[in-house]
What does this fold into?
Amino acid sequence: AQSVAQPEDQVNVAEGNPLTVKCTYSVSGNPYLFWYVQYPNRGLQFLLKYITGDNLVKGSYGFEAEFNKSQTSFHLKKPSALVSDSALYFCAVRDDTDKLIFGTGTRLQVFP
Amino acid sequence: DGGITQSPKYLFRKEGQNVTLSCEQNLNHDAMYWYRQDPGQGLRLIYYSQIVNDFQKGDIAEGYSVSREKKESFPLTVTSAQKNPTAFYLCASTRTVNSNQPQHFGDGTRLSIL
It folds into this structure.
């Protein structure tokens, strides 16, 4: 079965420190992977995607993600966290019927 | 600016009542989607539409209905058959269903039971 897992419900990090939000996936065929961010009472905003090419993908607001085929992972990273990065982050993968499967979300809390 | 508009932002439903959530987009996208978001469960697909006058059930369609009479509009009706409707509902769109472009989302409607 195709699926996405975000193993951490919450990630806490101090402002200025690097952050990582983890995502692993299981799909048949080549994975099309996405990261979205959600602020309270708002819709999801696109951050970045991996379709093909370089394993390190750069996206909006200084975020990047590393695609690792052997570990079936697509972890979201940022070198220096900001308090304003505090939000809910979703990883998603496109399944073989072209629909998105979303992870359960990881709440990122950045402390001043 | 192009985007997706969902209304109302907050909605309350009485027992036995049907309610309709509005979703309008001016992105000229063919594909539109409805998701339900519950705490700790991520987003679950309710219905989607690839083109005008066509729509398919998603993973949790029971108790919901949709229509797609215009390209710009994809309203969702939460019927009285949906026994646990309290949730945050999100509408999204893409150019086509099989597009590698990201889905664009509206800002959601929060539905509660009176």
User: Anything to note?
Assistant: Chain B has no helices and eleven strands. The mean pLDDT of chain B is 93. Chain B touches chain A at residues 4, 6, 9, 40-43, 45, 48, 58, 90, 92, 97-98, 100, 102-108, 110 (CB under 8 Å). The CA atoms of residues 67 and 74 of chain B lie 6 Å apart.
